[in-house]
Design goal:
six-stranded mixed sheet, 24% strand
Amino acid sequence: VNWVRLHRRTALFVGLTLIVPVFFYLKTLFGLIGLGFDYAGDRGRIEPRVGRLKGLLQNEAELLQQSQLAAKRLRELAFSATEDPSALAARLQADVRQILSEAGMSVINSQVMPVREGERFDQVAVKLTAAGSLPALDAALIGIAAYRPQLLLESLDTFPVRGNARGKTDESQSVTAVMQLMVLRALP
């Protein structure tokens, strides 16, 4: 203790020389402990992901099959993204006019509606007014239901045609139908 009093400067220098390495040693030790906790936390977050990836690899064939089935189903429900919306609307209008004509209905008016854009699909619609008998309307609706990719009937309003002769049966009754039909166009 006397030596420390007599050589204060030297004692201070020796003390700092001993304290600085201890400080760096402790800092490194606590840094490594912190890295260990970070690693353990990362491992806890990564393990479920690795498990999911292993599950995906084990079920790859089934997932591929389901993906192909979903793509096929999408082709049945919607036109591809490569289709031009205006060309698609014109084609839809022509196809629906043909379906109605083949069913025995006469198309009075048809109009292409503006394309409605959505998050995953565009909606391409046409509005038609047609006249014919009830059986012809029924046949037209069956033809519309058979159209692929699927043709959706947004609205259908029917009105009896006035001036039918008395004594006609309901099956020969003439109607005017105003319908709005829509197809989906998948977005890329």
